Amino acid sequence: MAPIRHVLFDADGVLQDMPGGWYAAMEPYLGDKAREFLHRTWKEELPMLAGHGDYLPLLAATLAEYGVETPVEVVYRDVWHRIVPSDESFAIVEALRQKGYGVHLGTNQEKYRGGHMRTTLGYDELFDVSCYSYDLGVAKPDPAFFVEAARRIAADPSTILFIDDTAANVEGASRAGLAAGRWDLSQGHDPLLALLREHGIELPPPA
């Protein structure tokens, strides 16, 4: 096995969280129909994750169909921008950088939420290479996402460790030749440090 020189992190559930979850965020607008609405709009969003189409007009039409009169920009900001970065996760990102590892982002996002993460949250300055699905033109778990990510990182896939909270995405990365492990924020950060150790990366616990 080649030594790991880069760590590619997923965003949602790994580096960032949504307080209360998606359903609770949507309930002020849709009540008990929030779950039904979100599952429908997530399905409609899939092409936009790969950079095909414009999500906001589609979301606006679906909101209108459900009788929501609030402007789509307001709903989108209240729900889709409800992102809280994990201080502990980003402390680990910085510790990896201090140890000389490349630290990168690999996330499925359509262009509006991805743009918010890149600029308002400042993620472009926190990672060496940022791989957003809408920009790559392909979404996880397709192995092509990881092939392109490795090309942009300019590293052999076997030297990249990918960390995600979804089993299918971990499997897609493995099929593309990356080392990969599953972890999410709900587990606490000790298992993440253990996962890194399994791949030869020793870090102190985040302060």
UniProtKB/TrEMBL annotation:
<dbReference type="Pfam" id="PF00702">
    <property type="entry name" value="Hydrolase"/>
</dbReference>
<dbReference type="InterPro" id="IPR036412">
    <property type="entry name" value="HAD-like_sf"/>
</dbReference>
<dbReference type="InterPro" id="IPR006439">
    <property type="entry name" value="HAD-SF_hydro_IA"/>
</dbReference>
<dbReference type="InterPro" id="IPR023214">
    <property type="entry name" value="HAD_sf"/>
</dbReference>
<protein>
    <submittedName>
        <fullName>HAD family phosphatase</fullName>
    </submittedName>
</protein>
